[in-house]
Amino acid sequence: MSIRLIIALLILCLMPDAKAENVVGIHTVSIHLPQKQQSNTNPGLYIRHDSGATAGCYFNSIRRTSCYVGGSVEWGPFGLTLGGVTGYAKKHGGHSGSPISPFFAASVRGPEVFGVRPRVAYVPGRAVKSSDVFSLMIEKGF
What is the pLDDT of residues 3-53, one digit of tens each? Predict the structure, then answer.
């Protein structure tokens, strides 16, 4: 992991949203652009602490389990998460030369409906994957 990424994570962790809350979320489905035989069904779970610390696991687009840890910050409905993710190593059919790869996700949170909120995330596909990804998550604050 590069020193720039580590510095960026530290900065993010020091800048929590004033309205931050603990969140548990469910990874659901994704759209890969361009589509290259990836799985668009990506179930998983994540937690985000009110400090911004974020961790989760999901069934990834190359049909492997991925786990990640990072830092998140939100400005109103908009969010940004940086961290490290497993499950995309070349030896398992991925595109990463390392067992842990950096990741970046920009997201927007929808309005609360029946006690839960949708979140749509964009993950650029240059570092770990060959496709850009839009993912849908459902989350609940507590």
Answer: 666 666 556 555 555 567 999 999 999 998 888 788 899 999 999 999 999
Q: Which residues are CB-neighbours of 3 under 8 A, at least 6 positions away?
A: none
Domain ranges of the chain: 3-141
Tokens, residue 98? 């390392």
**pTM, rounded to two decimals:** 0.81
Q: Which residues of 104-132 are buried (b: 16+ CB within 10 A; e: fewer)?
A: bbebebeeeeeeebbbebebebeebbebe
The answer to whether the peptide bond before residue 34 is cis (omega within 30 degrees of 0) is yes
| Domain 3-141 class, CATH top level | mainly beta
Report the greatest alpha carbon distance in the chain: 43
Q: The tokens of 28 are what?
A: 């659901």
For strand 23-33 and strand 78-86, is the pairing parallel, antiparallel, or unpaired?
Answer: unpaired
